[in-house]
Structures are given as structure tokens and as C-alpha cells.
Specification:
The complex is a heterodimer of chains A (336) and B (158). Chain A has 336 residues and is an all-alpha fold. Chain A has helices spanning 8-18, 24-32, 36-44, 49-54, 60-79, 83-109, 127-135, 146-160, 163-185, 188-211, 216-219, 231-237, 245-248, 256-259, 267-287, 297-321, 326-332. Chain A has a domain at 83-186: Up-down Bundle (V-type ATP synthase subunit C fold). Chain A is built from 17 helices and no strands. The two termini of chain A are 28 Å apart. The mean pLDDT of chain A is 90. Chain B has helices spanning 2-41, 46-54, 58-73, 86-123, 128-155. The chains are: A mainly alpha (336), B mainly alpha (158). Chain A binds chain B through residues 5, 8-19, 79, 293-294, and chain B through 30, 33-38, 40-42, 112, 115-116, 118-119, 122-123.
């Protein structure tokens, strides 16, 4: 753990980098774009512009988003004193890559194809190393304890042929790793943020499973330990009507995210609203560091804002490309 | 005993220059780190950053000024040597303490405030005027300490 005063350089640099984030005016111009080509022109004026020029093809905005995120993560590696802070944010991409590779492996065994194009370069582990480790079945050098998790997943699939169970093991690994890393770096607020993220993920899963009609026994394995709200409490909510969740979770901070989503009648629109309000809730958790000049948590705040920005850009461009209504897109946008 | 009196006065001067200078060094360092962070992204802000980085440096100057004044008082800086007894030496030592202590802490505090204001101008360069005022508020207490040290030094009779 580094002393917080050592973050003077890092936080100042992040403040300057914040000027490159997409502002509300540009977001509005993106939203007002008539078609995808017009939206891409607006996006070209932002930090994503230099990456768009390098890309070809219709989905070049996806590649541009990935390139920009990769650039940000690479910059972080150069000046953030505690690697754990950005490793926390890159771990979901490692898990995503492992899921893609394992699913490809399982598909191949069934005579299907592998989708290497779904791999992302945003993880902590270089994609080539990951592919090499899984293809050669040599997991010894995989970091973050994946040398045990990957064989465990392979064994589980051999026994059950159930990809959902494999995904659950990997998700559980993701959250336990995040709890571990945030504990090791020793910044209390980083640990709290991870706990809030687990709460948010559990609530998100709860709403999805409720919509799919799962009962508590079936839904139980989809929830994760480590949040402020216990797993048992979350499981007990699945038999309750959605309107009662806020009251039953009133003791927890994450209940704030439910209040905005209560007004929606059907579960589909409620889910979309809940996703948005959970992201806004997590933004709110880190918001207080906006005024801390030396707080290491500013690294998390910046990376979170960058992730949300990428999400907003993706929502707008995919929506505009598919001709979605502007009012619908506006409702889906997250606050930054 | 005259030697001990002189040594106590020299100790006071050393503390004033040493502590206030250390506070300034730490403060300027903190502000400099913040400034480097901003200039990595936007080198055009060098002028504004330099101004804010220089602010915590004044405590070191106040410490030096007090130290000069103290050794001048006991005749170590030119002129005839003044006989200094232990009590007079102790008086000079105590008179140097306000700027030594306040200079050290206010230098660090001003460095932190300057760093925060450097971050402020990264986002709002048009607010530079306000950004300079905030660290200057911390300066007030270093100036008060300097005043007190000089008044105390002046009041010691040889």
C-alpha cells in the first residue's frame, strides 16, 4: 500500500485526463445524430477519434472503444503506484476472455466453431498468453489463481456439460479476487466499492432471475458472497414482489438504486431502469472523491467513469444504428 | 557560559532556517508532483503551475530571514561580537521557534492546497485568480509567525 500523498501526481494527471471524457453536450449531439454515420462523425471529434481513423468496417466504433480503453489502462500502468487499483477494473475482462476460450473449447468438442473475435485485449493477462495456456493445457503460469480455476471449470464441464455452472464458478472467482485484491491494497473505500459492486450484481441477477420465474432454490447459486447484503438475504427476496425489495433492503445503501426503478410496471422496463440506476448508484459511491486531491480511489473513479462513458457510447451507437427511439436511448444513458 | 549563549542563539537560527526550509521543500515537492501530472497532459499550463508551485517556497525565505536576523543580533554576521549569556541565547532560540514551527507545517499545508488548486486549473483554467487566493490564505499564518519571531528577537536586550 502506498501513502495517499504519493497520489498527487496520479490524481493531477487524472484530473487533466478527465478533460478528454465526453461531455454532456457531445453526448447530446451523439443522441441527436440522424444515423450511424453522423454519430460516427461526432464521435470522431472526441478522444475516440484517433482510434476510429485506424479502424475499418461497420463495427469500428467497438474497436475504437476497446482501443481507447486499452490506451487508458496502459497509461494507468505507467503512473498509478498501486497496480491493484487498475487490476480490479481489468479483472472482469480476464474472466470474459476465459469464458470465451472455454466456451470455444467446449463448442469445438461438440463440432462447433471457436469465436476468437470475442476476445478483448483489456484484461490483465495478455490474450496470447491466455490462448496459449488454455490450448496447450499448461495452466501453471496463469496468474490470479486461474491455474486452479480453469482446470476446475474443465472438470465441472466434463461432469455436467452445463456451461452455466462453469460461468458461475468464474463469476464467483471474479468477485472473490476483487475482494482479495481490494483488501491487499489496503484502501478502505476501494474495498467498500467492491462490496457495493457485488451488491449491485446480486440485485441485477435477482431481477433477471425473478423475470425468468426462478424460485429461491434454483436462483441461489447465481448470487455472490462478499457484498454488504448477505447472500441469504438476497435469496430470500426472490419470493417477494419487486415493490417490497426497497423496504426489505432499507438497511443497505444499495436500496437507493431501487427507489428510481419502482415506478415501472413491467419487469422488462424495470430491468433496464434498474441496470441504469445501479450504475448511477456506483457512480455516486465514488463521487465523493471528486473533491479529494490525493485519494487513491480517484483511480477507481476515473476508470469507472471511462467504463460508463464507453457504455453510453455503445448504447447510443447501437441504438442509432438500429433505429431506436431517442427517448428510449435517453432513458438508458448513465450519469457521468 | 558566553559560548553556550551563542550556541543557543545559533541553534535557534538553524531551527528557523532548517524547519521552515524543510516545510517549503516538502510543500513545493507536493505541488510540483501535481504540476507534473497536469503538464504531462497539457504542457501549456506551465506558467500557471509554476506560480502555484512557487507559493509554498516563501516559508523557507521567512526562515532564512529570521536566521539572518538572529545571527546578526548576536554579532556573528559582521561587526563586533556581542557577549551573549545563557538566558539571552535561550531568548533568541525561543524567538526563532514561531517561524520554525509554523513555517514547517504551513509549508506542507500550502503545498497540499497548491496541489489541489493546480488540479482545479486543470479543469477550469479561467479560475486561476481564485486558485492563487486559496493557498495564499495559508501564507497568512507563516507571515504572522515571521512577525512574531522578529518582534521577539527585537525585544531581547543585549
Amino acid at each position: 500500500m502506498t501513502r495517499s500523498i504519493d497520489y498527487g501526481y496520479a490524481v493531477s494527471r487524472l484530473r487533466a485526463m478527465e478533460n478528454r471524457l465526453i461531455d454532456q453536450g457531445t453526448l447530446q449531439r451523439l443522441l441527436d445524430s440522424e444515423d450511424l454515420a453522423a454519430a460516427m462523425r461526432v464521435l470522431s471529434e472526441t478522444a475516440y477519434g484517433k482510434w476510429i481513423l485506424e479502424q475499418q468496417g461497420e463495427d469500428k466504433f467497438e474497436a475504437a472503444i476497446e482501443s481507447e480503453m486499452k490506451f487508458v489502462f496502459t497509461e494507468m500502468e505507467r503512473f498509478v503506484p498501486d497496480p491493484g487499483l487498475y487490476q480490479l477494473c481489468r479483472l472482469p475482462y480476464d474472466i470474459h476472455n476465459i469464458k470465451v476460450l472455454l466456451k470455444g473449447l467446449f463448442n469445438q468438442k461438440r463440432g462447433g466453431t471457436r469465436r476468437m473475435d470475442l476476445l478483448t485485449s483489456l484484461g490483465n493477462i495478455p490474450t496470447d498468453d491466455l490462448v496459449m495456456a488454455i490450448e496447450s493445457e499448461d495452466y501453471r503460469l496463469m496468474p490470479f489463481g486461474f491455474h486452479r480455476t480453469v482446470p476446475e471449470c474443465l472438470m465441472l464441464w466434463e461432469q455436467t456439460n452445463d456451461i452455466l455452472q462453469v460461468e458461475r464458478v468464474l463469476d464467483e472467482k471474479l468477485f472473490s479476487l476483487q475482494v482479495l485484491i481490494s483488501g491487499e491494497i489496503g484502501f478502505e473505500e476501494a474495498s467498500r466499492f467492491v462490496k457495493y459492486r457485488i451488491d449491485a450484481e446480486n440485485l441485477r441477477n435477482l431481477a433477471r432471475l425473478k423475470r425468468m420465474g426462478y424460485d429461491s432454490a434454483l436462483a441461489a447459486p447465481f448470487f455472490h458472497n462478499g457484498g454488504f447484503v448477505s447472500r441469504d438475504r438476497i435469496i430470500s427476496l426472490i419470493s417477494e414482489p419487486f415493490e417490497g425489495w426497497e423496504r426489505l433492503l432499507a438497511f443497505a445503501d444499495v436500496a437507493k438504486a431501487l427507489s428510481g426503478a419502482q415506478e415501472h410496471g413491467d419487469l422488462d422496463s424495470l430491468l433496464a431502469e434498474l441496470e441504469r440506476s445501479l450504475d448511477d448508484f456506483l457512480t455516486g459511491v465514488l463521487e465523493k472523491f471528486r473533491y479529494s486531491s490525493f485519494a487513491p480511489e480517484n483511480v477507481l473513479f476515473f476508470l469507472w467513469k471511462k467504463e460508463i462513458e464507453a457504455k453510453n457510447v455503445r448504447i447510443l451507437l447501437v441504438g442509432i444504428g438500429n433505429g431506436a427511439e431517442k427517448s428510449v436511448l435517453r432513458r438508458l444513458l448513465r450519469n457521468v | 557560559m558566553d559560548q553556550l549563549g551563542i550556541m543557543l542563539a545559533v541553534l535557534g537560527a538553524a531551527l528557523a532556517a532548517g524547519f521552515a526550509g524543510s516545510g517549503s521543500a516538502i510543500g513545493v515537492g507536493i505541488a510540483g508532483e501535481a504540476g507534473a501530472g497536469i503538464m504531462t497532459e497539457d504542457p501549456g499550463k506551465f506558467g500557471l503551475v509554476l506560480l502555484l508551485q512557487a507559493l509554498p517556497g516563501t516559508q523557507g525565505i521567512y526562515g532564512l530571514l529570521t536566521a539572518f536576523f538572529a545571527i546578526l543580533k548576536v554579532g556573528l554576521l559582521g561587526g563586533a561580537a556581542v557577549p551573549v549569556n545563557v538566558w539571552q541565547g535561550l531568548g533568541v532560540l525561543f524567538a526563532c521557534l514561531p517561524i520554525a514551527i509554523a513555517g514547517y507545517y504551513s509549508g506542507i499545508a500550502q503545498g497540499k492546497t497548491s496541489a489541489a488548486c493546480i488540479q482545479m486549473i486543470a479543469k477550469r483554467p479561467e479560475e486561476t485568480g481564485k486558485a492563487v487566493i486559496l493557498p495564499a490564505m495559508v501564507e497568512t499564518y507563516a507571515v504572522l509567525a515571521l512577525l512574531m519571531s522578529i518582534i521577539l528577537l527585537n525585544s531581547i536586550q543585549f
